[in-house]
Amino acid sequence: MKKHIKKLVIIAIAVITVISAAGCGIKPASIPTENKLKVSEMENTKSGIGAICKSLMDKEYVSDDCVKINAALIGASEGYRFDGVKYNGSNFSMEIYEFGDTSSDTAKKCIDEVKKNNSFTLFGKTVDYCYMSANGKYMLIYPDPKSTSDKADDKSHVERLDEIKKLINSQK
Which of 56, 62, 69, 81 has its CA 20 to 30 A from that of 27? Predict the structure, then answer.
């Protein structure tokens, strides 16, 4: 019984984390210390999501600090959130996920929704500003509203998002 309650508490914390991080301008929920890590200390940064995180840090798109997220909620195998991403007046949290096995119903549903709508639904809430890599293996949540703007003043935001998407698409 205690085991089930512990699992439910962990799932509830993960749900709160994903929902709070996905909202625009909402401060992320506090995360247990064991979920916080540094990109520079990640073990596998030669390929996959680790390489993406390292490249994002090297190009100064994100800081060295990130939070490991319970990616299984959306059918992904691994996920990281970067809080306090700041660019030219915008301040938001960015997330990146890797789908190692895209055959589960949860993964298929999430991937299909993102490919179709650039959003997905999690526990009745819509998570916007989502982008799938060309190979369907990586998902980016980049909630900077200026990155989808047609205004000339926001052009650098659009270009920055394009650069990040190219970086993600470069991973196999």
Answer: 56
- Summarised one tens digit per residue, pLDDT across range 70-81 is 999 999 999 999
Relative to beta strand 90-98, strand 65-68 is: unpaired
Sign of CA dihedral 57, 164, 132, 62: positive
Phi and psi angles of residue 126, each rounded to the nearest 5 degrees, phi first: -90, 130
Of 151 and 2, the structure prediction assigns the larger pLDDT to 151
Distance separating alpha carbons of residues 2 and 103, to the nearest angstrom: 32
Q: Helix-strand-coil percent breakdown of the chain, rounded to 5?
A: 45, 25, 35
* Structure tokens that stand for 100 in this block: 């190692």
- Once rounded to an integer, what is the mean pLDDT over residues 104-114? 92
Give 24's strand partners: none
In whole angstroms, what is the distance from residue 72 CA to residue 105 CA?
A: 12
Give start and end residues of each alpha helix (H) in the chain: 2-22, 48-58, 105-117, 155-169
Residue indicated by tokens 């052009």:
155
pTM to 2 decimal places: 0.78
Euclidean distance between CA atoms 6 and 13, whole angstroms: 11
